[in-house]
C-alpha cells in the first residue's frame, strides 16, 4: 500500500514553493464557487420576476375594481363570477408571496 509520509516539523521556502507548484488544483472548490454564482443569479432573476408579477397583479386588481361600470354591462353572469374568482386567487397569491418574503 501507499503510505502517507510523515509530516515534517519544519519546511523551507523552496521546498514549500515546489510543493505548491506541483500540487493539483482543487476543482471541486471551483465548481462550488460556480454553482454558488449560478444560484445567486437565478435567485436574482426570480426576485425580479416576482417583483414584476406583483406590480402587474396589483395593477390588474386595481383595473378590475375601477371598471365596475363596464363589468356591470357584461351579459354573462359567469363572466363576472370568473373575474371575481380570478381576483380572489390573485389576492391570495399576493398574500402568499408577502408571507414568504417576510420569512426571509
How would you describe this protein?
The radius of gyration is 30 Å and the shape is rod-shaped. The chain starts with 12 loop residues before the first helix and ends with a helix. The protein has one domain (27-103). By secondary structure, the chain is mainly alpha-helical. The protein has helices at 13-22, 27-66, 68-72, 77-103. The chain is built from four helices and no strands. 79% of the residues lie in helices and 0% in strands. Residues 23-50 form a coiled coil. Keywords: Coiled coil.
Short description:
The chain has helices spanning 13-22, 27-66, 68-72, 77-103.
Properties at a glance:
79% helix; 0% strand; mainly alpha; 4 helices; 104 residues
Distance between the termini: 51 Å
Characterize the biggest β-sheet: none
Shape category: rod-shaped
Structural class: mainly alpha
H and E order: HHHH
Q: Give Rg in angstroms.
A: 30 Å
Q: In percent, how helical is the residue content?
A: over 70%
Mean pLDDT: 82
Our count of helices gives 4
β-strand percent reads: under 5%
> How many structural domains does the protein architecture include?
1
Number of strands: 0
Low-pLDDT sequence parts: none
Keywords: Coiled coil
Coiled coil: 23-50
